[in-house]
Amino acid sequence: MNDTSKARLALAGDGPLVVLTGAVMSAESGVPTFRDAQTGLWARHDPAALATPEAWDRDRDAVWAWYRWREHLVGSAEPNAGHLAIARAAGGRRVTVVTQNVDDLHERAGSSDVLHLHGSLFAHRCDTCETAIEVGPAPTVPVDRLAPPSCSRCGGRARPGVV
Question: The domain containing residue 26 runs over which residues?
Fold first, then answer.
């Protein structure tokens, strides 16, 4: 029995189910992965300049602009057949999705029990006091720099909710 057949059996069964997903799941929806040698984000961008605490401390406006651009890309993507199949499997049973992805495609497909191991692009929080911050829609074109909004509680800055 191949992996696809095993997955179909698991999704069609009954009883609780835990599904672990990663980059390939969202890549099918057109979300660029980080590590693909040809099309991955790190093939075009330096991760040390965008995805580390040091990068945030060094140049918040550049990091914030890049993550907001990623939000727009993900927001433009649609859940694919895999996301939808997992959501349908929860029809009469508990299905927990554990994902390494920072997108919201599982939720938009209809899954309600989703755990994000690396956080969420859409869960902004203050870089000082951790308060959740609403930031509004992402820009529709990439920009080099964008100042993160201030926290109304402490004056810190909104940051992406990812690790």
Answer: 3-162
Could you give the angle at which helices 3-12 and 81-89 cross, rounded to 10 degrees? 40
- Tell me the C-alpha distance between 87 and 78, whole Å: 14
Question: Catalytic residues, which ones?
Answer: 118
Asked if 17 and 95 count as a contact pair (C-beta separation under 8 A), the reply is yes
**pLDDT tens sequence across 24-70:** 899 899 887 755 544 545 456 566 677 788 989 999 999 999 899 88
Q: What is the CATH number of the domain that holds 60?
A: 3.30.1600.10
- Concatenated DSSP letters of the chain: --HHHHHHHHHHS-S-EEEEE-HHHHHTTTPPPSS-TTT-HHHHS-HHHHSSHHHHHH-HHHHHHHHHHHHHHHHH----HHHHHHHHHTTSS-EEEEES--S-HHHHHT---EEETTEEEEEEEETTT--B----SPPSS--S--PPPBPTTTS-BEEEEE-
Overall domain count for the chain = 1
